[in-house]
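Kindly review this protein for my students:
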Amino acid sequence: MDAGSLNPLGFSWVKVFHRDEEMPDRNKRNYSKQPIEEKESYKWIEVAQKSKKEVLTEASTITFIEDREGDIYEQFVLIPDQRSHLIIRSRTTRNLTNGKSLYAEVDSTAVAGIYTIEVPTDKRKQQYKRKTVIELRYATCQIKCPAKINNKGYPESITVTCISVKETGNAPNLISWKLLTTHHVENFEQALQIVGW
């Protein structure tokens, strides 16, 4: 979609795959030691690479936005460049080069700003429509390369900005997201733009 108008433009690439019913489970395949190219999660990297190198070659800036399944260290190494960025909902905290954990680092920063949103009803979660206040924090961090892929030639660390989006109050199922981005974030307005996208 267009970043300014949010108008959908179409699909840049689509990956369709089918998991073989006879495929051994993760343990039998020794999944954690497989090269990223042999893992199902490679689909995130493959689609981004195909999009930016074969379809969106004339785009001045590209941002790939993904949910937690796209939170893969290798992707942060292979996809970003001067015109290609990532915004990914973090699935887990990570170790930083300063010895701290990612979530503890961003949660210890001062609130950069607050804003109000309307949360829709979702009866599956017993969540009812409400207006709520969101606290936004952010921190630029150096994430350490995970030990399980440390010997595969990846950089020892990557730089990302982690944005914490936390609902105040005591409603059930409070909103609490961590977004990782390669976009440069220096202030509340820029962080809020990432959340908006």
